[in-house]
Amino acid sequence: MPWVLDEIIQAEVDRLKRLRALVDDMPPPNVTLVGDSVLDRYVHGWANRLNATAPVPAVKVTSTDEFAGAAAHVARGLASLGLNPTLFSIIGGDEAGQILASNLKQEGIDTRGIRVVANRQTIVKTRVYGARESLIEQNQLLLQIDDEPQDDMPPAVTQRLTVSALASLSDADVLVLSDYNKGAVSDTGAQQLISAANGNGIPTICDPKLTGLNRTEGATCVLFEIRGLELTRRRLGLESSLETARNLIDKYQWEALVVLGGVNGLWLYTPEEQPHIPCLLDQPSQIIGLHDAAAVAMAAALSQGATLHDAATLAHAACETILRAEEGQQVLDRRTLSASLDERAWQMQVSDR
Questions:
Q1: pLDDT at res. 316
Q2: Domain contains 171
Q3: Is residue 284 domain-resident?
Q4: How far is 117 from 150, CA to CA, in rounded Å?
Q5: d(CA 205, CA 135)
Q6: Is 273 within 8 Å of 239 (Cβ atoms)?
Q7: What is the pTM of this model?
Q8: In CA terms, which of 132, 202, 209, 346 is 20 to 30 Å from 182?
Q9: Total domain count for the chain?
């Protein structure tokens, strides 16, 4: 029955057009964003030879870029889409923290919610990329260096951050918890924030570590990677991804679980439906930043009253935008996200001819 397929495709094309209008006409909703911030450092260079004493590339550095990452990267994406994020995060009183805060200010992001701990080290993630001068297009990641504090975040600092974030919820349209398990989001703080958001009718989006699922209870939507869902399935001894997703939704009282699969697409799990949105790309340029892009898109959609299915579709379009991007250039904006929606709608219509 070809007409059935036609109706399904037309419904998806209509959904993409509806989301395109949402992106183009979106007012600036307020977002309370709480999470761990990182200074992302990208080192690029030529790797034409091996080190003389070990079989590792010797990289001749040609450029170094520094960007605000993790929760701060989510803030950048929200601002680029035209939303109004208030970032509540913690950085150290060191040079890296100054660079991170300065970068955010240069992008017009309000940094008043950021707490500076004088004697604490700011987390820095350094990624070293190399390419042979004769094979410039084959640039690849060679090494990642994570430089971060070895001691736990002082509870009093986290609690003060939570109190400030709670106060901002009275004017917020959506709450985002970008939790890298580095101390900005505590067990008690997460419970307080999600409960307050639910009480105010504000949707909550959580991007947690697998070890921090207890800090997501009652959230509207939680983000996973496909490998995270598989690890959880094995740990729970369950038979399928669907059974695992429903188990998690029931246990933590989520409305939805969004699973990011990169070139394998995106899955939305709710108690009523399990749609899969396939990816239209065969080969990604890079994969860093998918979680942040999905969180930004979900926040944009849910803050405007979109359905979970519509929000997940926008999140997938955002992920495809990241998969096409160059390293270090993963911040969404309205132009690139709209282009991704248009491309997807066009390909779906062409494939149905």
A1: 95
A2: yes
A3: yes
A4: 15
A5: 41
A6: no
A7: 0.91
A8: 202
A9: 1
pLDDT higher than 50, residue 1: no
List, as one string, the DSSP characters of 211-268.
Answer: GGGGGGTT-SEEEEEHHHHHHHHHHHT-S-HHHHHHHHHHHHT-SEEEEE-GGG-EEE
| CATH code, domain carrying 117 | 3.40.1190.20
| Kind plus residue range of the DSSP H or E element containing 117 | strand 114-117
Distance CA 289, CA 262 (A): 11
Average pLDDT in the 128-141 region? Answer: 80
DSSP per-residue codes, 14-44: HHHHHHHHHHHH----EEEEEE-EEEEEEEE
| pLDDT at residue 8 tops 90 | no
**Cα 352 from chain centre:** 32
- 52: in domain: no
User: 41's torsion region: left (phi>0), alpha (psi -120 to 50) or beta?
Assistant: beta
Q: Does the residue 186 lie in any domain?
A: yes
User: Left if phi > 0, otherwise alpha if psi is -120 to 50, otherwise beta: which for 262?
Assistant: left
Show the domain range for 105.
12-38+68-122+154-351
Q: What is the pLDDT of residue 9?
A: 83
Mean pLDDT of 48-70: 92
Report how far apart, in Å, the C-alpha atoms of 323 and of each of 94, 263, 265, 279, 343 are. 33, 8, 11, 10, 14
User: Which of 36, 40, 292, 310 is flagged as catalytic?
Assistant: 292
pLDDT in tens, 201-246: 999 999 999 999 999 999 999 999 999 999 999 999 999 999 999 9
Write down the mean pLDDT value for the chain.
91
Give the whole-angstrom CA distance, residue 46 versus residue 123: 26
Query: Any catalytic annotation for residue 179?
Result: no
φ, ψ of residue 90 to 5 degrees: the values are: -130, 130
For residue 72, the Cα-to-chain-centroid distance in whole angstroms is 10
* pLDDT the model gives residue 265: 93
With contact defined as beta carbons under 8 Å apart, do 168 and 32 qualify?
yes
pLDDT at 3: 46
Give me the residue label for tokens 């761990």.
Answer: 36
